[in-house]
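Input chain follows. Return structure tokens only.
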Amino acid sequence: MTGKERTLLAINFEPTDRIPVVGGFVRHPQFLAEMAGVSVEEFWTDPRKTAIRAFHSLGVDVIIGLILPNRDSSSGAQHDIHKQTRFDSPEAMLDDIAKLPSLSDLHKNFVFQKHYDDYLKRYKDGQTEIGEEILWIPNTFDCVAQFQNEGYFGAENYYMALSLFPEAMNRFFEHSGETAFLRNTAVAKAIVENDLPRVMWLGQDSCDNRGPYIAPEIMNDIYIRHVKRSLEPLKDIGVKIIWHSDGNIMPIVPYLLDAGIDGFQGMQETIETKVDVEKLGGVTTRAGKKPIIVGSLSSITIMPFGTPDDVRADVVRCQELARKRDGGWLLNFSSSIGPEVPAANIQAFFDQASRKPK
């Protein structure tokens, strides 16, 4: 059984010989270089190719997103946050939102073939790079209504506007949702006509450790209902949607399930976050199924601060939870990990995760 076959069976809750293991969430240059059998300097000549070779050597079954380290960041993080200078207040955002094109203009100006070709290339190029034995699930965060707009508007402006100007923000999210809806009409056709795997990874960070950034009901009214609209073309062809969101998503899980979400990635099981993976795994999707779970070893506690034995024990915990629910689980960290995590802990994760049950 190949990793690709194992993963596709697992996300459909069909029997597998072991729980699939995820690759793509390691931003640790030294570890990746060692696993690929090259020096760190050689790693930086082609990080993507070297990371793929490392994940092959680790025996992963699926690569999601392929998050790579940034050489200019001490943490290996992909992005640095820069303060925006476009808007000096939430009120200043309103003119920008008022200038958004109408929905009819969005439809009129949409270039279907471009988005069809873009998705097909994104999928096929990635699958060719990693080889047919491993399933490729690309980052498709552009295929959903966008919530992470702090970098454009400025965090303080944006969060105040969500509460002060719900009508304007609803129009903003409606525009974003319709843009994603149109894109997904092309994506859906590309998937059907080219027989691509019907699973996608997308989502938006919309919560901190306390819960969603705004009241759950308001979040649904002005944002999540547009998520539902944006996903319609994908749900119509049976695509399974794995949602990424950090923080305590529990208060908005019912709304996300109604929007068509089939699984979750990014859960942080810490005392402050209050996300119970076992409880989350017991809810029911719109299709009447259990949700797919991608996780869930903590990237902020177990992985950086635990011992290799702690890591192995937590892998076993996840494997037992997966077996109790008859599959639908992909073993991974709660989020990507960098040089702050001891290499021995990363090795312990992959060694334990790839073991078949006796």
